[in-house]
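Sample pair:
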Amino acid sequence: MLGTRKNRGFTLVELIVVIVLLGIVGTFTFSFIGTGARIYQDTTEREQLVAESRFAVKRIASELRNALPRSIRVLTSDQNRCVEFVPIVSSSNYIQIPRPGPTASDDFIGILPIRSTELLNTYLYVYATNASFIYGNNVTRRKQVDTALLDTPSAGLITLDYADTPRAFTTESPARRFYATSEPISWCYNQAQGQIIRFSGYGLLPTQPSFAALTASTGNREVMATQLANNLTDTEQYPFRVFEATLQRSNLVQIDWRFERANSGERLQVLHEVHVPNVP
């Protein structure tokens, strides 16, 4: 006759040892998962920051390359926090413009530009070489287009009319070039909120408006980038710089934006130079 077997369980010591071992394994497992989650979060935030900065830089660079020659300016008294320029709508060459004297009543006749349907109410510039001609009350090199009359398609010409006086342009472009533009645009750094804001629709002003003036204006505004941390008390961290044209190149704009990732203090500096190819 076989002896009866006794059912045996785990002792308290064995249970304690198992619980401790499971706790150690669980701690390392969750620590590994937590580290992976933090790495994923850091990578995602970095990619988002880089993508946002890349979008804003590409957008402003594209707009600056399409700026009217000599229209780009920064306000040093406002710590270079804003860059202002006049965007080109269309451009071409002219074959006849009114000049002071016997030809003052002549029509303005140009070669039909590619974008001719958007010329109404644009500003018409001929050899506007400084800010007073571009932004100021002097209209001897700037007119505002009232009508645009297409000549016969075979001629490929367009006649532009305007009510500004004097009617004549005081000088000609060496390349017989004209530009049609819209109103100015400003890109500004809002240090308090860490944002880059794009302002438009505030009109031509002889003196470049400050960031405070643009904020108080009734124009349009769009936030183009966030998480910036430029310290404007340091002149080396000014967000915009404009270098005047030389014999070797036209205007050069330097963009220096310092991004800072939220809750980490990690910084990303974006230093970009934009060459403005257009000339009067």
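The chain has a mean pLDDT of 87.
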